[in-house]
Amino acid sequence: MKRFIIFITIFFFLFSCKKEIENTSETKQDELVQPVNLSSSDVNNLIVKMNGDVPKEKVKFVDVEFTNLKSQSKKLSDYNGKVILLNLWATWCPPCRAEMPSMENLYKRYQGKDFVILAVSVGETQQTVQNFVKNKNFTFPIFVDDKNQATSAYSTGSIPTTYLIDQEGYLIARFVGGRDWDGEEIHQLINQLL
Fold first, then answer.
1. Residue 111 φ then ψ, to 5°
2. In angstroms, rounded to a whole number, what is the distance separating the alpha carbons of residues 160 and 93?
3. Strand pairing of 115-122 and 83-89?
4. Residues 6+ apart with CB under 8 A from 71
5. Burial tier of 102 (Cβ tally within 10 Å: 0-12, 13-18, 19+)
6. Domain layout of the chain by residue ranges
7. How far is CA 62 from CA 65, 149, 155, in A?
8. What is the pLDDT of residues 118-144, one digit of tens each?
9. pLDDT of residue 9
10. What is the spatial distance between Cα 1 and Cα 5, in angstroms, rounded to a whole number?
11. Does 3.40.30.10 match the CATH number of domain 2-16+38-193?
C-alpha cells in the first residue's frame, strides 16, 4: 500500500510543467461533432489550454470502488474501454455545484458513445448526495465515496478535481477547480480520444 501511495504522489509531481498555448485559429461548430485528427502534442496543448495538467509519463488509473445512488458498488474498471471523466466533488462546494449543469450537457452530447462521466461525491453520506440531486434532473452517473478512497488514491488536495482517463485506462489529464465542461476544447479533446 505504501508503494501505491508513493506511486500516486510521484504521478502528481509529474504534472508540474505547464506552458500557455495561444489559440490562433477558430474552430467551427461542425468540427466539434466530428473526430479531430490531433497528434499527442495537440491533445496535450488542448489540455494545457483548458488549464489542465498533463502527466510526463503514462500512468494507469487507480481502480477505486464507490457506490451509486442505488447502493450498488462500482469500480473504475467497470468502465474499461470508455473515455472517463472522473469528477471528485462535494455538495457543500460552490464550484462543484456550478459546473454540474455543463457536465450534464457534455454527458448528453456524448451519450451512446464510449464516454462516461463519473461524478464521485467524496466524504459525504449517500443521503446527503441524494437530497442534493433530488430535483436537479442530472442523468450522468453520480456516486458516493464516503470512505474517501478516491481522494486518498488520487491525492486530491482540493475539489472539484477532475481526471480524464483514455480508453486504455491511462490518466491523460487532471483539472483542478470548477469549469465549463461543455466548451469547444473539451469537445475536441473527447472527440480525439474516442
1. -60, 135
2. 8
3. parallel
4. 126
5. middle
6. 2-16+38-193
7. 10, 10, 11
8. 999 999 999 999 999 998 989 999 999
9. 37
10. 6
11. yes
